[in-house]
């Protein structure tokens, strides 16, 4: 066996196949070259979702709407959780909406690699496309559910402020956080199918650890400051509080704590990218 | 050197087979072993290495090297498990080699199945775009070739019907049509011709021929020897992961046949897949032999054209069999179909009592040309609705040896599979004194 040629000696369309990972630059370059595929996979997910079920669109609307109604009944009326001077339905909806975006993105992302097993073992394309494409359909569901939000804004007579314009940043952060966790899970899921059973349970616990149904201020009041730091590592605290800050004008999250969670999420995302890149080489062997 | 488009150097791929480890002696040892295993698993999870699920390793590919020049059409042949698919998967970048490297100097398109990425709920039109994109076509490219693809598949009436309502034949046609319109510099194809009806297979072969003549470089894995022979000028023979021959397709196929024969010794049925045999199977073939003919060492019995052949099929019968039928398909070893012998043609019923039963089939004056022949054996019980209860495919049976030159100026014999001996001619005139 002779030495393989050096990267510099390769032609423009040449591909060198060898054991081990390829450079990050090449992965990025390849992924970019296949962006059309990203579009097609996302389009397929959305299309199949809304084509098959008669309830397609209605489902994306009903899910957050019913969750809001049940939350209002259970947490507000029965458990007596108080949302201060904001009406509880709109308060809980501003938590449910980003939470479901995160939940759907993460769940679909974690199952994406296993779901594409058939294609993965038959054709090559940058594997990164799969988890990234999977979150786009969750974004579509989110956009449908936004209609309810607009309805609530009008019904509860909420005055739009400049803060509304910052909302997309929090939406992006929710998806980014879902990807940060989802990349790990999708790669682990390829090898350990237990992940599939763990994810729903994990998400249920995670929801209760996020201020979806209760205000963050309540948590801050009931627990000593030492816990605040740990609690706010959860990126969804930042996302939900961001939504409420932008839409309802609440102000319970200290910016320093939010920055903390962003830094940790970014680290988790980078770790996920590195881990996914390590494992993607063996997908075809383990799926 | 500049026209070398594929260079494969020392490619090896190791797989581990899950094997049960020998249980440890005492509890302490088991606990220590358990912890060590867990630690190793954790290490492999973090490093992203392939799981070490068993101790037994085997090399699916072992130090394979070859080069392909631009525009060459190269066949890759070998028995099941010889490493053909693994090689294609490595060159398609689906899985990575354990050792060695390969250089592909051009865009690679791989066709390891028909209908890659199809979604059953989507229409034909939507699937063309989806599958095309997954196979590496740009949207503009698919748009340009859309009509051609639909036309090739012959499904224009159903283009907006969900694919799940298509017959399996239609799905295969559409899948192949999309793939056939890929235009990479290097095309990697695995056995896709084994699907569809005869007419479509011919169409596919025609398309493949067109592709190979257009100057594209093709790697073609197949069990269909006539197809390999007609499409590829050069072939590579793999055996147990090793490259054993690289050269002209004709020689390569001959070598494959030779080795294949000596591996499946006459009468030994252990090489065949017998997955139809279950507890419910009343009878299955235990042994097969051919009586008569010349036999040298382990080679198949050899006959001359026109000789009588007796095939003895030994069945193991568990429960009485009544009113069954036997179907024998005679093929050339390369796969060309020759003839069918069916007990039903003579209104015969096969009845067998528990124990060992022998069925003999005598063929008088076998009118075959020199070459190697194989047979498929199907036992159909009454009420099995045409599905054989025991089925053996491709049992090498006998050889028709070369006959001495028959004279005349026709050098291409043997030709085809049948050699008529009983032919009468009526000539326009008979010149005296010849």
pLDDT averaged over residues of chain A: 89
Secondary structure tally: strands of chain B: 18
Mean pLDDT of chain B: 81
Q: How many strand elements of chain A? A: 1
Report the total helices of chain A: 13
Range of strand content of chain A: under 5%
Full CATH superfamily name of the largest domain in chain B: P-loop containing nucleotide triphosphate hydrolases
Supply the helix-strand structural class of chain B: alpha/beta
Taking pLDDT < 50 over at least 5 consecutive residues as the criterion, the unreliable ranges of chain A are: none
Structural class of the helix and strand makeup of chain A? Answer: mainly alpha
Q: Any idea what the shape of chain B is?
A: globular
Summarize the structure in words.
- The complex is a heterodimer of chains A (287) and B (434).
- Chain A has 287 residues and is mainly alpha-helical.
- Chain A is built from 13 helices and one strand.
- In chain A, helix 3 packs across helix 4 (88-115).
- The longest helix of chain A has 28 residues, at 88-115.
- The radius of gyration of chain A is 21 Å and the shape is elongated.
- The two termini of chain A are 30 Å apart.
- Chain B folds into three domains: 10-59, no CATH class; 63-262, Rossmann fold, CATH 3.40.50.300; 283-400, Coagulation Factor XIII, Chain A, domain 1 (Distorted Sandwich).
- Chain B is built from eight helices and 18 strands.
- In chain B, the strands form four sheets. Chain B has a six-stranded mixed beta sheet, sandwiched between helices.
- In chain B, strand 8 (234-239) and strand 9 form a beta hairpin.
- In chain B, helix 4 crosses helix 5.
- Residues 19-25 of chain B have low confidence and may be disordered.
- Strand 1 (14-17) of chain A pairs antiparallel with strand 4 (99-105) of chain B, so a sheet runs across the interface.
């Amino acid at each position: 066996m002779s030495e393989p040629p050096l990267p510099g000696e390769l032609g423009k369309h040449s591909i060198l196949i060898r054991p081990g990972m390829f450079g990050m630059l090449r992965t990025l370059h390849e992924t970019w070259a296949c962006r059309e595929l990203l579009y097609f996979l996302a389009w397929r997910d959305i299309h199949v979702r809304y084509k098959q079920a008669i309830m397609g669109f209605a489902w994306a609307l009903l899910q957050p709407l019913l969750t809001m109604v049940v939350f209002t009944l259970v947490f507000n009326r029965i458990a007596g959780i108080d949302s201060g001077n904001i009406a509880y339905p709109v308060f809980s909806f501003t938590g449910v909406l980003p939470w479901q975006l995160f939940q759907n993105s993460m769940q679909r992302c974690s199952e994406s690699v296993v779901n594409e097993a058939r294609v993965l073992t038959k054709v090559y394309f940058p594997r990164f496309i799969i988890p990234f494409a999977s979150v786009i359909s969750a974004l579509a569901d989110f956009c449908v559910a936004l209609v309810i939000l607009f309805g609530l804004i009008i019904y509860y007579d909420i005055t739009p402020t400049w803060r509304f314009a910052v909302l997309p940043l929090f939406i992006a952060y929710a998806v980014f956080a879902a990807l940060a966790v989802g990349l790990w899970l999708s790669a682990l899921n390829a090898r350990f199918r237990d992940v599939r059973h763990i994810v729903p349970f994990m998400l249920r616990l995670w929801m209760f650890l996020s201020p979806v149904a209760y205000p963050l201020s309540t948590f801050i009041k009931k627990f000593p400051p030492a816990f605040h730091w740990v609690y706010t590592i959860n990126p969804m605290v930042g996302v939900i509080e961001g939504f409420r800050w932008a839409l309802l004008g609440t102000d319970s999250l200290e910016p320093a704590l939010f920055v903390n969670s962003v830094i940790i999420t970014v680290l988790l995302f980078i770790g996920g990218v590195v881990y996914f890149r390590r494992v993607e080489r063996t997908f075809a062997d383990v799926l | 050197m500049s026209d070398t488009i594929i260079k494969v150097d020392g490619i090896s791929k190791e797989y581990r087979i899950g094997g049960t480890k020998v249980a440890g002696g005492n509890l302490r040892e088991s606990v220590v072993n358990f912890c060590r295993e867990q630690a190793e698993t954790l290490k492999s999870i973090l490093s992203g290495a392939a799981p070490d699920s068993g101790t037994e390793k085997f090399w699916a590919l072992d130090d394979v090297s070859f080069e392909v020049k631009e525009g060459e059409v190269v066949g890759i042949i070998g028995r099941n498990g010889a490493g053909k698919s693994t090689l294609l998967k490595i060159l398609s970048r689906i899985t990575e080699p354990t050792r060695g490297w390969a250089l592909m100097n051009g865009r690679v398109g791989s066709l390891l199945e028909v209908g890659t990425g199809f979604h059953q709920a989507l229409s034909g039109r939507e699937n063309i775009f989806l599958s095309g994109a997954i196979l590496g076509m740009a949207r503009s490219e698919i748009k340009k070739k859309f009509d051609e693809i639909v036309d090739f598949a012959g499904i224009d009436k159903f283009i907006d019907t969900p694919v799940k309502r298509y017959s399996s034949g239609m799905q295969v046609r559409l899948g192949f049509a999309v793939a056939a319109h890929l235009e990479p510099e290097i095309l990697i194809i695995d056995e896709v011709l084994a699907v569809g009806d005869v007419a479509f297979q011919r169409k596919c072969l025609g398309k493949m021929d067109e592709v190979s003549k257009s100057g594209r470089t093709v790697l073609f894995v197949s069990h269909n020897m006539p197809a390999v022979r007609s499409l590829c000028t050069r072939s590579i023979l793999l055996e147990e992961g090793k490259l054993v021959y690289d050269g002209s397709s004709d020689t390569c196929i001959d070598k494959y046949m030779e080795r294949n024969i000596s591996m499946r010794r006459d009468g030994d049925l252990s090489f065949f897949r017998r997955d139809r045999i279950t507890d419910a199977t009343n009878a299955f073939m235990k042994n097969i032999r051919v009586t008569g003919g010349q036999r040298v060492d382990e080679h198949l019995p050899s006959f001359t054209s026109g000789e009588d052949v007796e095939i003895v099929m030994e069945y193991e019968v568990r429960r009485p069999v009544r009113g069954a039928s036997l179907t024998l398909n005679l093929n050339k070893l390369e796969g060309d179909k020759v003839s069918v012998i069916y007990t039903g043609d003579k209104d015969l019923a096969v009845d067998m009592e528990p124990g060992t039963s022998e069925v003999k089939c005598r063929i008088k004056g076998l009118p075959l040309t020199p070459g190697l022949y194989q047979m498929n054996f199907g036992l159909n019980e009454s009420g099995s609705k045409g599905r054989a209860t025991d089925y053996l495919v491709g049992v090498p049976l006998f050889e028709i040896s070369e006959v001495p030159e028959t004279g005349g100026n026709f050098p291409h014999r043997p030709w085809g599979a049948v050699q008529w001996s009983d032919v009468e001619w009526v000539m326009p005139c008979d010149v005296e004194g010849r």
